[in-house]
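Why does residue order matter? Because the sequence determines the fold. Keep that principle in mind as you read this record.
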Amino acid sequence: MEPTRSRSWSALALAGLLGAAGVTHFAKPKPYDAIVPRALPGKPRTWTYVSGAVEVALAAAVAVPRTRGLGGKLAAGFFAAVFPANVKMAYDYRAKSPKARVIAFGRLPLQVPLILWALRVGRSTR
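Structure:
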């Protein structure tokens, strides 16, 4: 089944979001280092770079129609896997400015639509 134009646009938008986020892990790694859960072994910078590389790879997988199904499903799993970093950020930001708290706490419920979007993109190739 040929994906509709809106489905292709949605997949490319998700690929753009993932790609842009992945690149920022390399261009501005410090904010990402700060939200790496302490329970993870190794240095936070390593996790920052690994997660950035994964996001770039997922962007490529979602952008290509042939790999979009798997890419969408893997992106949904990735969005779920990074949720603990968002929880850590919200916890760490609880004493910061109201604007910073809104950003940090606002990321938590946004994971659900991101996961659903990635799953929808993953199913769009059927």
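Helices lie at 5-27, 30-35, 44-63, 68-81, 83-92, 98-123.
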